[in-house]
Every structure is written in structure tokens, then in C-alpha cells.
Write a structure and sequence with these properties.
Layout: E1 60-65, E2 68-73, E3 77-83, E4 86-91, E5 96-99, H1 103-110, E6 115-119, E7 122-125, E8 129-134, E9 140-144, E10 149-152, H2 157-171
Antiparallel strand pairs: 1-2, 3-4, 3-7, 4-5, 6-7, 8-9, 9-10
């Protein structure tokens, strides 16, 4: 009993279709056709897909926490703090998520116009700052919307004051 396949049993030569301009596929197995992607052109008229603007931050980000993928709304994030190899994301409702993403990469996804780097290991949502208070030693203390406080690094004090004042002028 033989398990050898003869070349007669399995033809692998494919003739190109008349509309196929790729003659290099002659003599090869035909590639699997790719499934159609859901794009704006294929979307039914009842579904609207927002057009992403280059450089604009996303309103929803996908966070991997443990073995789960969690969709999180960016405006609900109060602040983000680094904790060694992890990042803790503090939400408005008190939930804290821990994920293994560098804080620099997360800052890029969150956007620099909405989030402010106040420390080497801390990002703050500008919309969630309730009050600013001066501390001894040239530091600032920020009180957030849910009541937590955080201290601004001395070397970032001027940049933080400038960004908060420019944001206040834009609102007025």
C-alpha cells in the first residue's frame, strides 16, 4: 500500500482568467480570495461611519486589561498614572484599570490637546480639573472632578499654568 501522491491526482496548474492580468500565477495554486472589508463605500446608507481627521484623537480607545479588551470613552478618563511596567487609568466612576502600555504611547492615543502631562508618570484630563492651588516649593496641586488631588512637577509648572489659562480663555 502506497501513500505517495502522484502528480496526476492533484493538478496545481491554474490558467489565468481572461481578466486576470497576473501571468506570474501560472503554475501556482490560486490564492484564496480576501473577504470584503467593511468600508465607507460598502456601508449601507443607514450606517454612518465618522470620517477620521488626521491628528485628531479618538473618542473611544481599546484597552487590554488582563485577558480582556475594554472599550473606554476618552472623556470619562480623569487621569492616568504610571506604575512601573503598568499604567493605571482612573475613570470618572471610580473604576481603575491596569494595563501594560507605556505612558508615552497612551499619551499619543489620548491626544495632547485634551490630556496634559503634569509629571513624568502622570497625565491629566484638562476637562476634569476643578481647581489649582500653589504649594510650597514651587509646586501646584490640582483637584480633579471626582475629588482626588495630584501634584504637578516643578519643572512642568509653567507649561501647566500656560495650558490651563489658554484653555480657560478659549472657553470664555
Amino acid at each position: 500500500m502506497s501513500y505517495r501522491r502522484d502528480s496526476i491526482d492533484t493538478p496545481v496548474i491554474r490558467q489565468p482568467a481572461p481578466s486576470d492580468p497576473r501571468p506570474e500565477l501560472l503554475g501556482r495554486i490560486a490564492p484564496m480570495s480576501q473577504p470584503a472589508r467593511f468600508t465607507r463605500e460598502l456601508a449601507p446608507p443607514s450606517i454612518t461611519i465618522p470620517t477620521p481627521v488626521a491628528g485628531s484623537p479618538a473618542e473611544v480607545i481599546l484597552i487590554k486589561s488582563g485577558f480582556r479588551q475594554i472599550a473606554m470613552r476618552v472623556p470619562e478618563i480623569v487621569y492616568v498614572e504610571a506604575a512601573r511596567n503598568y499604567v493605571r487609568i482612573h475613570q470618572e466612576n471610580g473604576v481603575v484599570l491596569k494595563t501594560r502600555v507605556p505612558i508615552d504611547r497612551l499619551a499619543q492615543h489620548l491626544g495632547t490637546e485634551r490630556f496634559l502631562r503634569i509629571h513624568r508618570g502622570r497625565l491629566v484630563n484638562m476637562e476634569r480639573i476643578r481647581s489649582v492651588r500653589s504649594l510650597a516649593g514651587g509646586r501646584l496641586q490640582l483637584t480633579m472632578s471626582e475629588g482626588s488631588t495630584t501634584v504637578v512637577a516643578r519643572d512642568r509648572r509653567r507649561a501647566v499654568i500656560a495650558r490651563i489659562s489658554s484653555a480657560a480663555e478659549r472657553r470664555a
